[in-house]
C-alpha cells in the first residue's frame, strides 16, 4: 500500500509543505492493518477519540468541489455550510465526482495530494486536539497532523460546519 500512487502523492504533498505533528515530527502516512472506512473504525485502529479523525468529505457545491474536513464526532450541516458560502445547492458528491476532483476514492480521500487544489473548510472542532488524523489517499492509510498545520497545508478556511 505504501507504493500506491495516492499514498505517494499525499506523502509528497506533506513533505513539500513541511507538515508536522504536535511533537514536531514530520507527518508520515502510515498503513493500518485493515481499511478504515469510517471515523469510528479509524479511531479504534489508532486508539484515539473519534473526534480526532478529520473526515474528508467532498461535496458538490453548485457544480464545484468543496472539501469539508470535519471532526469524526460531527455531521456536516449542509444547509448551514451552503448559506455561509452563498451556495444555492450543496450535496454529497457522487463517487465519480469525488474521483474526478481528488483522484481518490470515497473512504480514503486525503485532505491534500489532489490533481489540483480543492476549496476546503476545516471544522473548528478539530482545534481542540493536540493531533488530528486524516486519510492518506486510500482507506488503509492515515497520517497525524496538528489542526493549524492541517489548515495551512490545505489552504483551508476554519469553519463551524456542524
Can you describe what's shown?
By secondary structure, this protein is an alpha/beta fold. The chain has one domain: YbaK/aminoacyl-tRNA synthetase-associated domain (YbaK protein). Helix content is 28%, strand content 24%. It has 5 helices and 8 strands. The protein has helices at residues 5-17, 39-46, 78-85, 95-102, 147-154, and strands at residues 30-31, 53-61, 64-71, 90-92, 119-123, 132-135, 141-145, 157-159. Strands 1, 2, 3, 4, 5, 6, 7 and 8 form an 8-stranded mixed beta sheet that branches. Strand 2 and strand 3 (64-71) form a beta hairpin. The protein is globular. The model has no long low-confidence stretch (mean pLDDT 95).
Short overview:
This protein has 162 residues and is α/β, with parallel strands linked by helices. The chain is 28% helix and 24% strand.
What is the rounded distance between the termini?
Answer: 33 Å
User: Uncertain segments of ≥5 residues (pLDDT<50)?
Assistant: none
Strand residue percentage: 15-25%
CATH superfamily: YbaK/aminoacyl-tRNA synthetase-associated domain
Give me the Rg, rounded: 14 Å
Structural class: alpha/beta
Count of all domains: 1
Quick one: biggest sheet? Answer: 8 strands, mixed
* Level-2 CATH architecture: Alpha-Beta Complex
Number of strands: 8
**CATH topology annotation:** YbaK protein
Give the fraction of residues assigned to helices: 25-40%
Mean of all residue-level pLDDT scores: 95
Amino acid at each position: 500500500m505504501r507504493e500506491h500512487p495516492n499514498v505517494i502523492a499525499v506523502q509528497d504533498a506533506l513533505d513539500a509543505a513541511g507538515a508536522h505533528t504536535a511533537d514536531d515530527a514530520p507527518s508520515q502516512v502510515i498503513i493500518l492493518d485493515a481499511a478504515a472506512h469510517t471515523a469510528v473504525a479509524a479511531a479504534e485502529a489508532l486508539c484515539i477519540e473519534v473526534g480526532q479523525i478529520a473526515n474528508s468529505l467532498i461535496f458538490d457545491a453548485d457544480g464545484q468541489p468543496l472539501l469539508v474536513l470535519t471532526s469524526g464526532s460531527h455531521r456536516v450541516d449542509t444547509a448551514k455550510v451552503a448559506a455561509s458560502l452563498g451556495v444555492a445547492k450543496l450535496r454529497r458528491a457522487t463517487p465519480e465526482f469525488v474521483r474526478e476532483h481528488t483522484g481518490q476514492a470515497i473512504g480514503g480521500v486525503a485532505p491534500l495530494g489532489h490533481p489540483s487544489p480543492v476549496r476546503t473548510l476545516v471544522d473548528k472542532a478539530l482545534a481542540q486536539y493536540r493531533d488530528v488524523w486524516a486519510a492518506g489517499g486510500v482507506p488503509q492509510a492515515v497520517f497525524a497532523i496538528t489542526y493549524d498545520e492541517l489548515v495551512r497545508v490545505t489552504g483551508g478556511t476554519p469553519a463551524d460546519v456542524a
